[in-house]
């Protein structure tokens, strides 16, 4: 294991994984609270188009993906608020449009599918120092906003009508959550990849709420679980790749580790819930 | 006496269908008003218009003498929306839900002040749920969750409470607990606007009843006893309720009779 840490790419990968693991479940908690667990996935698909535009124009795929995902997030929020289209139909349209657009534009750029694949499934072991810095800055923004504005964001998600009558600018916070989700998607792009990003946003939250009774408790535990899954998954992938000469990408191992956590806590949660009902 | 709410010829349509046909209503400070009527009479819509949740198509609304469009002192308003429950997608403790009631008074990024904590503890005490403060709100019964929502409004220390059908689907024990809580609010001098289909244990608190039918105020005065009330609106219930209302000139002629 100490062997692994002697590689500088591994140190960079660990830092990127750690901040992603912390940031993704913080915003994910609000998405789960609003029953919009799949929003991250939808934004991930939209970001594919952003990456492709970056490849085509020769600009940074990460920043173009951030911009395009933010535009997509605001579009989803507007569609949701206006209520013209069903929320999940709006998401579906973005899923397909984003993915198809991304693959098409990547083709136009003359890039192979394997270039795109590093964004779809992550390539944390190939991140540069600049990538790590970008990831840290974006992740810090997400965590500070999500934790600092927790009273406002959770009240708006919990009961938008009450929040509005209390004088809270509900639309502003709705858009903020969507924008932060978009930023998180691109933060997680290099670690777990755009197609698995939603898992790191949602699975730790689903696991945490098996055990918790409060919002703050859920948020804190989900962050811890996300961090654990990201670091554990990365080390697991590196260990399997080096010691068994396999070719295991860190993205899937991070997500599968998070899902294992859920599978292990679910029976505990079911038992706790049955006790609470009996207690009533 | 100062006016808390003033509606002048308020008209409102939902999806093209007129729901409120020119409502005039004034509520003074300290009144306990029950807004009653059958389903679809417009009583909930009226409260949603008064709290700014539904834009009106004509007329004017003023809160504490300020036109709704310019009204900024939302901390004076306590709203208890009509909801199936207080739970959301993530576990939330009773205390956390009630603490949300302080939002209008808290500064951004500031931790809870001593006054915040005291108001939350007091609100939980009034609705009789202090012992459940750390439980997940989802584990409470429907009636208890309604009391949590009332505590949330109470925690903001507002001057007027708008309660939208807090007793809908709530058992008698919890209705009594609700009535006790509202009694405390009344004693403290709060103005209460209660939307209700039936008053039940709250009847003794009400000092003015406004009965609505088909988007108009049909009765405004001393609360009627339950028997009179029922003989009063039951025949209409059979004639009009449950059918879609079409706003044709003929219909409104018939209603104006």
Description:
- The complex is a heterodimer of chains A (280) and B (257).
- By secondary structure, chain A is mainly alpha-helical.
- Chain A has 13 helices and no strands.
- Chain A has helices at 2-5, 8-33, 39-57, 61-82, 87-108, 113-120, 129-148, 150-158, 160-165, 170-187, 197-208, 215-243, 250-279.
- The mean pLDDT of chain A is 89.
- In chain B, helix 4 packs parallel to helix 5 (172-187).
- The longest helix of chain B is centred in the last third of the chain and has 16 residues, at 172-187.
- By secondary structure, chain B is of the alpha/beta class.
- Chain B has one domain: Rossmann fold, CATH 3.40.50.300.
- Chain B has 7 helices and 10 strands.
- The A-B interface holds A 29, 32-35, 37, 148-149, 151-152, 154-155, 157-159, 161-168, 205, 209, 212-218, 276-277, 279-280 and B 51-53, 72, 74-75, 77, 79, 81, 83, 86, 88-93, 95-97, 99-101, 103-104, 106, 108-109, 134-136, 139, 141, 149, 152-153, 156, 162.
* Radius of gyration of CA atoms of chain A, rounded to a whole number: 19 Å
> DSSP helix count of chain A?
13
Structural class of chain B: alpha/beta
Task: Give the SSE string of chain A.
Answer: HHHHHHHHHHHHH
Mean pLDDT of chain B: 86
Strand content of chain B is: 25-35%
User: Biggest interface in this structure?
Assistant: A-B, 36 and 38 residues
Key traits:
heterodimer, A: 280 residues, mainly alpha, ABC transporter involved in vitamin B12 uptake, BtuC, globular, B: 257 residues, Rossmann fold, 6-stranded mixed beta sheet, 4-stranded antiparallel beta sheet, 7 helices
